[in-house]
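In the current project phase, our protein records have gained a structure token line. A sample record follows, to show the layout:
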Amino acid sequence: MLKIWLPPKLYQLLPLAYLLSGLLMIAKLGDEPLGLISGLMLCTAAILVWVLRALGTRKTTAHKK
């Protein structure tokens, strides 16, 4: 399996890019169903990634103590 490596700064900014892309999609194409659904999916993905990363960080921090 191919491993993809991203610089840490880019990796941390990905959820923000998802969120901004989703909001832009909703703003520009929100009057069409496909644009609205796509924008909402991108925003949902951003929130999900942030929550999962926060939970993972919390678990690894608690485990190290």
The first helix runs from residue 8 to 29. The mean pLDDT is 89. Helices lie at 8-29, 33-64.
